[in-house]
Amino acid sequence: MGDAMIGDLGAADATELAGLVAKGEVSPSELLDAALAAVEARNPAINAVVLVQEEVARRSIAEGLPVGPFRGVPFLIKDLGAEAKDFPSHNGSRLFANTTYGQDSAIFERMKATGLVTFGRTTSPEGGVGTVTEAAVYGGPTRNPWNLDHTSGGSSGGAGAAVAAGIVAMAHGSDGGGSVRIPASSCGLFGFKPTRARLPDGPYAGEGWAGMAIDGFLTRSVRDTAVMLDACEGPDLGAPYVAPPLERGHAAAISRPPRRLRVAICDTTLTGEPIHPEVAEAVRATGRLLESLGHVVEPARPAVDVPMMMRAWTDIVGVGTALSIRSKLGDRPPRADEVEGVSRGAWAHSQTLHPTRYLQAVGEIHAFGRQMAGFFDKGPDVILTATLAEPPARVGRFTPTTEDYVAYRTGPQGIFAYSPFCAAFNASGQPAASLPLDWSSSGLPIGVHLAAAFGQDETLIALCAEVERAAPWAGKRAPMAA
Question: Which stretches make up the Amidase domain (predicted)?
Fold first, then answer.
């Protein structure tokens, strides 16, 4: 097998690889060998895969893999969340380096039950705060397989880079402000954020960032995401709230196109500012594609209070970061050798907030969700925007060394100006997806973003599958994956 199968890993999706295993054309051990060889060959350039646990993976194969839809497929989990007793985690932080867990999280149990062969973790920024993955604990930035001078995104930046580089066909991620969709856009992949509470958070967390954060996957195909969502969806024991029930499931939904939809197209930011011209044209081109498929596409922007939402998001995440640091350090301030600059800034920012501010911010997030729901209630089924306001940034542009946490997030050159779309749908809890539909003149991926009304995951993923069939992206691969 050898080099040929390494190449196949760069081209096949997880469903195809599982089919090869089921037919006996390749064994799980051979696929793992190929993935480990790809790590050795490609990871030094991108710094995406960490904490490799080869013996754990070998043991899972030897003991017998569950008979599920991805039996035998190599897999990586994000180095943040997805707590698993056999997989220590740094959580993107020197402060939490080599954390171990006494039991598996619900999401990991469900992923494992599909038959995947998990063999390591992928890099993330400290605490998941950021649109780049450049945490000090990993000794250097994670780079984009399409161009090593550029970021693979964040916070699931290692996951996006590992899939785009052909190390694995699919990887776990999570999304609290775009952290699946931003790497998907940056790395030429598909990334889907489900409706709030569609996937389990427990038992290590009650909810992520006041319900704004949720797990997800970086994939080459819509079908891989659909099947994984079906395998993992539903509340875990004691969940504080649940998502609206699915009618048929994601995999069934993509078996046929959705009804003809009303699509609101916005080729600016949600507050009307211009975005990079190549990105804006990608949005318009997608609008024309949707029209050609029979959908009704009309310009519209939701009348929502985006500045209020971003202030609330910033305060909630700041408090969450401080809570995490406090779990290790108590009430003393974190030192520079323990915690990144941005995280120290988030801790300091949290100390300036009135004790009632957290609940006020949660209320503002809920108010924003009601504003967005009102927009969808008046007509559109889907809103079409860019995923990012420009192509992937250069490595170093958003390095988390500054202690000005608020400016890092919301300043004129901050992360929100770069990524002004994704967090809105974390706040509203709506399903949203990034599709790899264009590339810049310099060869960098450009993602296009679709979001649907709360609970309408099946409609959205069916539309994504229809677009994938009309404008397939599977043949486009990063040079190192080819």
Answer: 30-460
